[in-house]
């Protein structure tokens, strides 16, 4: 069916249940960013493939809400269908809710699948719709009625994540969580987020593209833990190990009846921001206890073993990128290369490094104007061909057992313009400002975010995305709770702590011409303790040269030049033992000092 035919089928199902508007989010029952094909309902209905967005279908309108990262992509993918793009002004903000309240008459009914909405999201919807006399029905799974060839749930086997990488055992993590559950005087604790379950149990899987997680729920009890998943996904040897650690396997679909049949004296702790409303409603009201996501805060602080492996994986990733850029420079001497081919070749070089489980997100290979599409994804049929001119923005990452990587470099494939060099240097100055700041303990990402933007702001320039996000350890590349962003997004309000791994990625985008972004991962570490309190700072962990050909050195201060030269010295020292003479010569040229 075409997009318009699918929308028409949904409207027919809406009429059957007396629904005037239906909401289709991008999430799954676990509030995941990347979801298994089974839950890509919004993509199937609208044709928009971006990872963030909400579709609303009414009797006479179909609208997609997404933020500035996806404006150009959405315009292209929605063209020719009846779905209209609504441009969000603030990333992650539920601006579609106010639209619903304004558009619908009193007495109207809004429907959605409650498995795909958290408790907090449903409360937000009800808060804004009820005053207008609009009813919300969140027990409708209409997509399943019209999606005839819907992909099944994934059935890949899960696997043990070795403690030599994890640093802490499954038992240790379960006990740390139980201590916090007991402090809240709760009897059981429900975990629904896939990366938190994987981290807690030292397990990984391949159920979701880019994130090494598996479809499941976890309930922690005093004496054991219940893991709800397809039991066939657990190899026999692993099932024995889990049983020895007090983890009992239950079928995935049995989570709802389990919660509905709890004993009357059992109080269950849940996180309303990540638990879907259908599970929440299954727990008797007097037995619900609301609190924070406990594993999320614990796993955000990387332990010493994890940090040691992250340092090592940055070397592996740097070597893979070096091979990619050398290959690209050489092949462009004789022929053009598509953006898609670059992405596949980089995946090949990363795979050769060992312990590699795939990309941590779909590589953004944006040549010239495509670089201005913040989350551009090259298509094998339509991707642009690189020539020996213009700018290339390459944002990519890998999932290794030693850690998750995320790096962006912007390079000139030929002669650059004065404007491009100025914009690039302003972005670099912001990157350095954030990388070198020393700040009081308790500071949040929102307080530091302006450092990365201030040089652009002085020229009347800006970018529409956050400056950085938390990064998991062989887990989700976008990991809450911290980040460099405004307060509205949530992650910007989280105080930074030693052990947190975060991206530093300011950028600038000129629509129709080029995009610029420079990204490294930084580790929050302890700084000095003075008469004015304890201070923190960042250690840059990513290891790959920053393009010198795009820098207007006269715009850099002495301190900024010193940072750049020191960084390149460290890159050269770290990567050189793994290179042949030709590669070493290439790296030496890319790391030469600026004066």
Brief description of this entry?
With 595 residues, this protein is α+β, with helices and mostly antiparallel strands.
How are the elements arranged and paired?
Layout lengths: L2 H15 L3 E4 L16 H6 L7 E5 L3 E5 L4 H8 L4 E5 L7 H9 L5 E3 L7 H11 L5 E3 L5 H4 L12 E2 L2 H4 L3 H14 L4 E4 L2 H8 L1 E2 L12 E4 L4 E4 L7 H9 L2 E4 L4 H6 L7 E3 L6 H6 L5 E3 L3 H7 L3 H28 L5 E2 H13 L4 E4 L4 E4 L17 E2 L4 E6 L1 E3 L2 E2 L2 E6 L5 H19 L2 E2 L4 H14 L9 E2 L13 E2 L16 E4 L2 E4 L3 E4 L2 E11 L2 E8 L17 H18 L5 H10 L5
Parallel strand pairs: 1-5, 3-4, 5-6, 8-13, 11-12, 13-14
Antiparallel strand pairs: 1-2, 2-3, 7-9, 8-10, 10-11, 15-18, 16-20, 17-19, 19-22, 20-21, 23-30, 24-25, 26-29, 27-28, 29-30
Textual characterization of the structure:
There is one protein chain. The chain has 595 residues and is α+β, with helices and mostly antiparallel strands. The chain has three domains: 3-146, 3-Layer(aba) Sandwich (Creatine Amidinohydrolase, Chain A, domain 1), CATH 3.40.350; 159-299, Creatinase/prolidase N-terminal domain (Creatine Amidinohydrolase, Chain A, domain 1, 3-Layer(aba) Sandwich), CATH 3.40.350.10; 301-588, Alpha-Beta Complex (Creatine Amidinohydrolase), CATH 3.90.230.10. 35% of the residues lie in helices and 20% in strands. It is built from 19 helices and 30 strands. The strands form nine sheets. The chain has a six-stranded mixed sheet, sandwiched between helices. Strand 13 (268-270), helix 12 and strand 14 form a beta-alpha-beta unit. Helix 4 packs parallel to helix 5, helix 14 (304-331) packs across helix 15 (339-351) and helix 16 runs antiparallel to helix 17. The longest helix is centred in the middle third of the chain and has 28 residues, at 304-331. The radius of gyration is 25 Å and the shape is globular. The N and C termini lie far apart (61 Å).
